[in-house]
Automatic annotation (TrEMBL):
UniProt protein name: Camphor resistance protein CrcB
UniProt organism field: Roseovarius litorisediminis
Keyword terms: Signal
Keyword Phosphoprotein in annotation: no
Domain DUF302: 55-117
Record-linked Gene3D superfamilies: TT1751-like domain (3.30.310.70)
Keyword Mitochondrion attributed: no
InterPro entries: DUF302, TT1751-like_sf
Signal peptide: 1-19
Superkingdom of the source species: Bacteria
């Protein structure tokens, strides 16, 4: 019993460390989800990238009689950035194209969220943390979400 309690205590003590090791970057937005997503989509196409899909999770939930706060995902990319990563490791195709989530939290605040490209591709062999495409993806995501945030 002592060992079980010690194991549980040890496991619980690790939770704050896991929670603080968050690879998700969040950007506060001024508008609602639909307006922010429209701004993101315009920024992406304006930058010359391709929008592959816009997924409305709340609309999907409504179709099956369930409820979600407004939440949409934009899936987009630029082959000039993504192809070199996939050439370095084909498994990068599991993470690309890029995705940005626009959602409303419980307090009604709208956020843009995306996974840090360096962390997203970090565990794949053959991809250097210093790869130029990672720097470009990181910069592009920062600029696009910053522009879409309206802040």
């Amino acid at each position: 019993m002592k060992n079980l309690i010690a194991a549980v205590a040890l496991g619980l003590s690790a939770l704050p460390a896991l929670a603080s090791n968050d690879d998700i970057i969040k950007v506060k937005a001024a508008g609602d989800v639909a307006t922010t997503m429209d701004a993101l989509e315009a920024a992406v196409t304006g930058a010359g990238a391709t929008v592959f899909a816009r997924v409305d999770h709340a609309a999907g939930a409504k179709k099956v009689g369930m409820e979600l706060a407004p939440e949409q995902v934009l899936i987009f990319g630029n082959p000039k950035l993504g192809t070199p990563a996939i050439q370095d490791n084909p498994l990068a195709g599991l993470f690309l194209p890029l995705k940005v989530l626009v959602y409303q939290d419980g307090a009604g605040q709208t956020w843009l969220a995306y996974e840090d490209p360096k962390e997203m591709l970090d565990d794949l062999g053959g991809i250097s943390d210093d790869a130029e495409y990672i720097k470009k993806m990181t910069g592009a995501l920062g600029k696009l979400t910053g522009k879409a945030s309206g802040m």
